[in-house]
Please model this.
Amino acid sequence: MIRIEHLTKRYGTATVVDDVSLTVETGQIAALVGTSGSGKTTLLRMVNRLVEPTAGRVLIDDVDTATLSPHLLRRRIGYAIQGHGLFPHRSVAQNIATVPRLLGWPKSQIRERVDELLSMFQLDPAEFRDRRPHELSGGQQQRVGVARALAARPELLLMDEPFGALDPVIRAQAQADLRALQRRLGTTLIIVTHDMEEAVALGDRIAVMDQGRLLQYGPPEQILTRPATPFVQALIGSAERPFRLLSLSPVGDLVQPGQADGPAIAPDASLRDALAECLWTGRDRLPVTGGGVVTLAQLRQRAAGAGLAAPDEPAAAQVAP
Ligand SMILES: Nc1ncnc2c1ncn2[C@@H]1O[C@H](COP(=O)(O)OP(=O)(O)OP(=O)(O)O)[C@@H](O)[C@H]1O
Model:
């Protein structure tokens, strides 16, 4: 568990991170969103002490990170940034092996780990191990960057706009892969993004920042249905909100008894997909694979925010004064 307590960073008279407190449970993803210059990167970099806080502290599993040596701390924390930051003159394998080498892993174990990670990211080890970063596509470089961050099996992974440079299709795939991988490994993840869509797709919790302050921290449903301030509301984008809400839940959530004509939709498809299918095919109900139906009337209700579980724990509904 990561506990950020009253974290503050000042440069001269400018307070760029202003008394931010939030908790990320083990195995969860927290997405930091906000406008440019709102302090997201600075907040993230204070977690691995690339930036030293002016005040406040960060606890990882109840240990104050100020008591640890910064370089040892950073070996325990994966860090992936936009533009991947790969070493250009080192091979893919050497790049991925960076932290395991610093930790003194035996060569055979490093090699095994590199190949395992390449396979996990759908890069054939025999083909990619010895290439240099410039011999890879942007998406492949990005995957190697994330593989490098995961190499030493960090309990915590920090990502700063890791998919910013990818086109929308690859980006959606990269997000899905990251989510699946993170679930499998149980890694705790803090990701900075300026894209609310990405935050909703990835975050178990979303932190909205503006001018160094945390305006709201809560599950995506809460941010979307109960924005704490006009700024949060503007960031969500009112036109997109119904679709974002629908994208959070699978068809299986709304399935009810009944029958309908036409091709069926899978229970694990999103409600957003179901709405698109209804509109595209002119149907007001769809059969669901395995039985039952989902209706347009239900989808409309859900898009308006009805029937969602009440936003949980009051602490997560933290709102700045
Ligand atoms: N080393 C520094 N010295 C002085 N000011 C800094 C320094 N680093 C960052 N800042 C300022 O702190 C503020 C927050 O920057 P930060 O990079 O954390 O924002 P951000 O939300 O990540 O922005 P973006 O989305 O554009 O990357 C900005 O106004 C920036 O100019």
In short: The pocket of adenosine-5'-triphosphate is lined by residues 11, 16, 34, 36-42, 194 (CB under 6 Å). Confidence is low (pLDDT under 50) at residues 310-321.
